[in-house]
Amino acid sequence: MQYRNIVEGRFLSRPNRFIAFVETEEGEQICHVKNTGRCQELLLPGATVYLEKSGNPERKTAWDLVAVRKGERLFNMDSSAPNAVAGEYLRACFPDALVFKPEKVYGNSRMDFYVETAEKKYYIEVKGVTLEEGGRALFPDAPTERGLKHIRELIRAKEEGYGAVLLFVLQMKGCRGFCPNDRTDAAFGRALREARRRGVLVKAVECTVEKDRLYIDAEVPLLF
Q1: In this structure, how many other beta carbons lie within 10 angstroms of the beta carbon of residue 57?
Q2: In this predicted model, what pLDDT tens digit does every residue of 36-75 receive, in sequence order?
Q3: CA distance 54 to 199
Q4: DSSP 142-197
Q5: N or C: which end of the chain has fewer CB within 10 A?
């Protein structure tokens, strides 16, 4: 996944989930934050961030905040990026797919991908991960009823004979593995473990993150 027109800035503040103030060489900018999660451990005053210039002159905010540096590590902050890079990754995983369709309704949910091969049909849900603590990647960073619903739908899909996959895309590199954030959302952690027991394929992959590029390059261990 490639970005265009990237500039470096210094994070100042985030008055709400959608807006951030960033200092650049051209002065203070009002930016759209492309991740509505809390991200409190990343968006700290003074942090180095990277902005992409919007190509839409009608927008109220001319810039998108797409990445932030934490120590020596770069984190992608774009909530649309996991699906974009997962699409590239999954097409390589299913080179002989007869159908490859983003966003297909199953039950009461819209799953991120639907894939048909000659042997099987799959529903695949993707979750982006930006939280890291002690070398572990964690999801979610806030309680998620939507995430719980997706897990239940995947369990049901598996019971009905579909392939069911939950893919966690780590928007960072260098974690020793992935596990659910039980402290923040114990119900999600219980549901995720139940899904694995009942045959849902749970995978976690990490990304190489550059200021203007993002791509999946390795699977990481599940630590639960």
Answers
A1: 6
A2: 777 888 999 999 999 999 878 778 899 999 999 999 899 9
A3: 42
A4: S--HHHHHHHHHHHHHHHTT-EEEEEEEESSS--SEEEE-TTT-HHHHHHHHHHHH
A5: C
